[in-house]
Amino acid sequence: MEALKEIVTPLLKWYDGHARVLPWREEPSPYRVWVSEIMLQQTRVEAVKPYFERFIKELPDIRALAEAPEDRLMKLWEGLGYYNRVRNMQKAAKELTGEYGGEMPADFERILKLPGIGSYTAGAIASIAFGIPRPAVDGNVLRVLSRVQKSYEDIMKQSVRKSFEEQVRAVIPKDRAGDFNQSLIELGAIVCVPNGAPKCGECPLKEQCRARAGGVELELPKKTPPKKRRIEERTILVLLSDNKAALKKRPPKGLLAGLYELPNLEGRYESQEMLNYVKELGLSPIRIQPLPEAKHIFSHIEWHMAGYAVKIEEPEEEPEGFFFVEKAQMEEKYSIPAAFGAYTEYFKHRF
Ligand code: ADE
Fold it and tell me: Which of 6, 26, 37, 202 is labelled catalytic?
């Protein structure tokens, strides 16, 4: 594969004139770069901005992240999904607080060992915050490089990613490592875009791009399609008394670990079966109403959901594992994953 040397100068020049002004770029401290990169792994830049600002305001440094109560942390992440990412960040923050007084060390290998940090994120923090010349190759960069080099190699393969990382490492400029990595990411995000035609007319690498020369930019990059998701049927309960609604806490391991959820059962049930279930819990149902079906897509699973709102008498005792929360407090205090979003709106329901 040809050396990437010739892309460095045009890319940096383009970046100087076209980089978007983004909150984490203005003051690229290790903590801010870290938080932004983890958020950006799952969400578009525009959507990340308000989450980023709120997170940094409430937890301004690594020590504050280490000490944040779990429920608060989940609430700050609510809507971003992949909650394990922020749990791992907190674990890492605790390590950093114990070992380095709450600072990120300027050491790529040590950063890479932190929970939840892989070679991309470690490279991004090392280069953007510390100027350490390490590559940060994410999906954007893989797309750009596949096209520039007209590479038909499968970018889902670890070996292919490693090879791209090595190629970037060989040319990364020592005095502008962070800008160079970000210029590749930025080009992938706003010019060499996925889904739909890349804007080759605006591209600083149009002279160097072999995919464009061959007219094959839309065929690249090559990716093996992801595995099919497993489908799970679930029945969700919106259990309401006069001014309270029922929540449960999910188990500490697995999907949506440790988060709050609406009561639900695996499988699909009819109204009568759900009424029986509510009675078995020791509660007194007054009426039941079927709710619209809903779907939620996780990375490996799809939930296909049926739902019921059940009005109950004020419970004398909470069934084991359930707790009834004042509806007025729900929004403010409890982070309920987006998977239940189609049903949480019925908390306000009067019927
Ligand atoms: N996507 C991932 N990392 C990014 C960054 N640092 N800037 C803009 N978009 C990104």
Answer: 37
